[in-house]
Write a sequence for this structure.
């Protein structure tokens, strides 16, 4: 460990590990029975969700003529994730995911059932519709991080990109079928209330299949800590700390928020485009919404082939440019055939973008923080949708739908040069599998209690002057490892009297947090640590000391202890 000479920091990433090119095939995950059953049940449930989305939005256009209230339907769907995404991820990383999923599926079933009953009796109001849509999406917000986090438990790591794309295909198959079915059901009844009520009732029933699959699932977690579970507040803090020191995770979040903020104009204003500009009813709106879904399915089935030839950055640039064109066409060209063709391409671009960003998040984080990262991603994604829907809704109400679409197109065009500087899935990916510690816990005179702290860990290195330049570069790579793992402070100091003596110090909030940081170390993190240790020249490995905060005690207690 200590006498192998200089190590170049570029060796941190393992050779050739790009899962976007190594996947066994676009449909390989469907050969796994559990994933296939989950996928089918999810698709059926998503059909019901998209039927409800169309029926709910159209019912709002019947209950009110306010563009703002209509646009707020999208906000009601997105806002819960904005507030609950990280909390949902923390919950999914702490508690047993199968039970959580069953609970929140039951919550959504109940919320939609109440809405169906109120709609059948004709007593639903715009505020009530918004409130129950909000309640439904609280369940969705709390469900989704755990739902996505179980994917690595169902398929091999190399098939994660295909599994993510298939999940997107599931949602978009539903988007292709659901809106048209929702619009057809509303049109089939003389009363919009009765048609919407039946849509809500069917959606409520669609959750039952997912609950049944989850009930039968015998789960085997990939990562199971031997330590006590984190408390909720601590789990949220550690998730935010990881995000702060993980640039590979920050890039997808920034791009997801920016993209969805501008593209939300399509989703939130499409009902108004159908009704006011194209002069079509619920069925026409359903067809337009379904066109997005058909295009998205086309994108999902061909995305694996496209990724082999075009890297992620170029894909995202192309889809952003296409959405600028889409927004302008919806604003200026009021021909149904043109709108349908344009929305087919928009659906293709949507799946391409969101699947790429989702995969980049899933491949950028280790198992212990997986659901929190996905929760943060969903929070960012839906935050852009919610905020954008309000902005474009206000512009549409005070000016016109056309003005709102033009503003969003101009904003997206201006954002493209800035977003192109944030790279996604660039280069080789680190090995994030947990590193199995081979050495025992530190030998201490008195083993601290789990809550004792703060804890300062001090490591002394002896670095020859000729190795100092390499050491200074590699040790600062280790800084991010310490901070992501739970350290609240880190520093590297050089002895002024002995320049070859360097001391690394980092502080943990408690002894339990320090033990967790050891457990959380990945293979890539360990490789960085080994590079640092390899530059040490001294007797054995670097000296490590563990210091617990010395609390003040009463004199009689000190005397009795002695």
């Amino acid at each position: 460990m200590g006498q192998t000479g200089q190590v170049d920091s570029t060796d941190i990433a393992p050779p050739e590990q790009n899962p976007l090119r190594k996947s066994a095939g676009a449909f390989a995950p469907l050969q796994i029975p559990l994933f296939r059953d989950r996928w089918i049940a999810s698709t059926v449930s998503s059909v019901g969700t998209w039927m409800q989305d169309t029926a709910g939005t159209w019912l709002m256009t019947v209950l009110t003529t306010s563009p703002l209230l209509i646009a707020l339907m999208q906000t009601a769907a997105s806002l819960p994730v904005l507030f609950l995404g990280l909390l949902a991820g923390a919950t999914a990383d702490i508690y047993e995911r199968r039970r959580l999923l069953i609970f929140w599926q039951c919550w959504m079933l109940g919320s939609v059932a109440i809405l169906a009953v109120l709609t059948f009796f004709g007593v639903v109001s715009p505020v009530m519709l918004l409130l129950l849509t909000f309640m439904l999406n609280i369940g969705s917000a709390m469900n989704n991080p755990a739902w996505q986090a179980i994917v690595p438990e169902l398929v091999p790591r190399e098939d994660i990109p295909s599994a993510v794309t298939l999940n997107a295909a599931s949602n978009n198959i539903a988007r292709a079928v659901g809106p048209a079915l929702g619009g057809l059901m509303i049109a089939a009844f003389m009363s919009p209330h009765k048609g919407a009520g039946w849509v809500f009732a069917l959606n409520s029933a669609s959750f039952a299949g997912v609950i049944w699959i989850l009930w039968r699932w015998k789960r085997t977690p990939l990562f199971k800590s031997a330590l006590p579970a984190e408390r909720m507040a601590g789990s949220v803090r550690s998730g935010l700390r990881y995000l702060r020191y993980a640039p590979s995770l920050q890039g997808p979040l920034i791009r997801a928020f920016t993209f969805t903020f501008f593209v939300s104009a399509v989703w939130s204003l499409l009902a108004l485009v159908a009704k006011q500009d194209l002069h079509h009813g619920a069925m026409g709106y359903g067809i337009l919404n379904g066109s997005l879904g058909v295009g998205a399915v086309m994108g999902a089935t061909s995305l694996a082939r496209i990724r082999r030839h075009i890297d992620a950055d170029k894909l995202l640039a192309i889809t952003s440019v296409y959405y600028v064109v889409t927004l302008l066409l919806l604003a200026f060209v009021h021909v149904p055939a043109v709108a349908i063709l344009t929305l087919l391409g928009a659906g293709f671009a949507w799946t391409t973008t969101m699947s790429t960003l989702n995969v980049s998040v899933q491949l950028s984080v280790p198992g212990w923080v997986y659901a929190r990262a996905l929760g943060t991603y969903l929070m960012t994604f839906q935050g852009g949708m919610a905020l954008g829907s309000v902005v474009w809704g206000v512009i549409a109400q005070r000016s016109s739908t056309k003005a709102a679409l033009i503003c969003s197109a101009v904003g997206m065009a201006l954002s493209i040069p800035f977003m192109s500087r944030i790279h996604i899935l660039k280069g080789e990916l680190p090995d994030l599998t947990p590193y199995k510690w081979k050495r025992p816990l530190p030998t201490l005179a008195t083993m601290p209690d789990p809550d004792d702290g703060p804890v300062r860990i001090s490591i002394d290195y002896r670095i020859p002057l000729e190795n100092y330049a390499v050491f200074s570069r590699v040790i600062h790579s280790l800084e991010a490892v310490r901070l992501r793992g739970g350290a609240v402070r880190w520093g590297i100091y050089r002895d002024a009297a002995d320049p070859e003596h360097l001391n690394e110090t980092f502080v943990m909030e408690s002894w339990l947090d320090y033990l967790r940081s050891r457990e959380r170390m990945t293979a890539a993190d360990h490789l960085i640590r080994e590079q640092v240790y390899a530059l040490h020249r001294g007797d054995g490995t670097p000296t490590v000391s563990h210091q617990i905060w010395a609390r003040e005690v009463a004199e009689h207690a000190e005397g009795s202890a002695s």
User: Anything to note?
Assistant: The two ends are 41 Å apart (CA to CA). Residues 432-561 form a domain with the Alpha-Beta Plaits fold (CATH 3.30.70.100).
